[in-house]
Amino acid sequence: MKENLGLVKTVKSLAKILRGKPNPPASLADNEMLQVIYKRRSVRSFTSQPIPDDVFSAILEAGRLAPCTVNLQSWTFAIFDDALWQQTFDHSIPFHGNRAVIVISDSARYRQVLEDFPYCPLTEYTIAVVNASLAAMNMNVAAEALGVSSVMLSETGRSGILDAKYLKEKLNLPDGTVPLMTIVFGYARGAYPIMPPKLPMERILLHGQYQPSDRATMESWLEQMIAGYNASHLGTSFKTQLDIYQSKIGQAEDELNEMVFYRKK
Amino acid sequence: MKENLGLVKTVKSLAKILRGKPNPPASLADNEMLQVIYKRRSVRSFTSQPIPDDVFSAILEAGRLAPCTVNLQSWTFAIFDDALWQQTFDHSIPFHGNRAVIVISDSARYRQVLEDFPYCPLTEYTIAVVNASLAAMNMNVAAEALGVSSVMLSETGRSGILDAKYLKEKLNLPDGTVPLMTIVFGYARGAYPIMPPKLPMERILLHGQYQPSDRATMESWLEQMIAGYNASHLGTSFKTQLDIYQSKIGQAEDELNEMVFYRKK
After folding, report:
1. ipTM exceeding 0.85?
2. B96 inside 8 A of chain A by CB
């Protein structure tokens, strides 16, 4: 993958990023709740203002009340303030967020009373991952409704799926659970970041039969990703970020197999 | 598992269900957007009122703009009105919903331009399932914001993860994609259903180290599930529902393994 696009392509790609914006129908553009949903961004810079306990509770309540398959509630939320995060992981919450939630897929809890549930680990894991992710998004939206910003982490600071085994050990989690992500919460410092390059609607919709995206759209997206990283992430690039992923993903894959298919190993 | 609790336990369990409600901090109880999030329910009865195109577009836009790992947008949304659903599946949209979206985890699209992404299927699948589920929840909340109700299906009408291979064939999906669920959208007929029995907050939170839920809480939950099904789902029971799951999950597990680890087979 190219790390550098050259000046012309970089400028064109950055211009495309800047033109990207939510595209709601004009008739609904003034729906306030839609605005909150559309304006949400992953925020990585927070003020030191603490999140009050009631606000954090209201966010967690959105997680508790998320929809889930057969109402199994196959999730656990490990909650942290900075002191507990430091005590657990020996460093601050990533990006100096004020609170954090490690979202865990949990097929262990309901098995306490549904012992004869058959061992079909990949299906059960998938269902738990779906449910835990629904809860994560519901918390994220509830936070936005309360003026609290957040970012969901998959890797930064060993906080997500690429370090699931490490997190599982740190939290003393039982078989049947897999930590998926950390959501870091806080009040945003400054304006929200620019929207990252999103694929156009017609490229992610399927109407009837699957059509592979045309290559030109995907190449344009890739160029925007490269240009955007180079412009906004000082000291890193999209390729560097992918390289970090690629260097960790092999071990993560082995560990995840061990965690998901726990009875076989 | 018991199918029948006896009268006293049934009454007590139903009373517990009826006492269950969203529990936001009093200080935030009048936040309108939180109310929408907390009052959302899975709705399975819809009027014949059609969802206008602009409203459906606004819902899909929330999916397009959902957060996702490294902005990979590893999702595809197969969209349907009843005519297209009928044409594809030879029956109406489940519960006579007006529109439907099959939410598909899609690791195939970005690979068109990131060819050297290593083959770590379980990790990549997990990331795509997380992302697609975040998009699903964002669409669900956006729908509620617009007065549109919905239900996410995992099994009903061969529309979810337990029939992923069937859906993949029907939609001609490539390797690297897995259909996760169908979201059925429509305008709710009548009042929202009662909240299903949710575990208390302290049972799903982890503060420091994992503690298994006390068995009494889980048994109370199970009794509420049994009593609630018997009371509200005419002609079925929680055990029947679990039996349907159990009868399908073995084959689903084989098929899912085939789909997730597609290069090995």
Report:
1. yes
2. no
